[in-house]
């Protein structure tokens, strides 16, 4: 009994904890997705949306729960991959999966009624939701998190403290989701700006990223001193590692922000009679509710 305990403790690693946490939304999403497919197969969420949501969760695990995370204190380039995954890869994939309809059909009825009927009706929460739904707030929050956490004193603090490191990851994920909501507009979000402004929204988001990536790539000294004493991996020098991190940020953000900007521009120039997203969600039982109303009991039971 006592000899087995250390083995059990060793099995429970941070990677196991992250996987366990991410398994919950994956389970409830798949449960709701299957219910929707069974009830309205012609208008339910698609297999691509399921794949996008699960890929988003998988990318979160790769960033903070896999062996990749063990190298973030050794290589700045790996640390940058973490940040980019949590801000520009995982959030849009999760939102493209239309998580709210699926989760509302997959969660237990009591949890839905508590969340939808009590929490979301709370006045301060409604006010906070209205503020956070503004594209300008979403943009400032995401760019502020990006620049703020990469300030040397704050970055070094996150490297020295596990608590602050986890707070950094949570902040990147939360602000990443906020940033992508005006772009993807998953239900039940409502467009606050005209659609033509979103390519500009994305363009201006590349500017702080370009400035930070250029600073890291062209600076003639190591910005984060902790990496000077870190073990050398793959024979990369600290300055070369920093240059690689800056190049990764520039390439990733430029490409990821360019793709939706092009797609949205094409949609604006060739408008459709009715968005597929609205056609799909309006046909789902229990989905086209008023915001303050809980879902249909028959759907979630």
Low-confidence stretches: 1-12, 274-301
H/E element sequence: HHHHHHHHHHHHHH
N-to-C CA distance: 41 Å
- Tally of discrete structural domains: 1
Radius of gyration: 21 Å
Mean pLDDT: 79
3D shape: globular
Q: Count of helices?
A: 14
Query: What is the strand tally?
Result: 0
- Return the structural class: mainly alpha
Question: Helix share of residues?
Answer: over 70%
Query: How large is the share of residues in beta strands?
Result: under 5%
Explain how this protein is built.
The longest helix has 32 residues, at 238-269. The chain has helices at 4-11, 14-39, 47-64, 76-96, 99-106, 109-119, 123-132, 135-149, 152-160, 162-184, 197-218, 238-269, 276-282, 297-300. 71% of the residues lie in helices and 0% in strands. The model is unreliable at 1-12 and 274-301 (pLDDT under 50). The protein is an all-alpha fold and 301 residues long. The chain is globular. It has one domain. It is built from 14 helices and no strands.
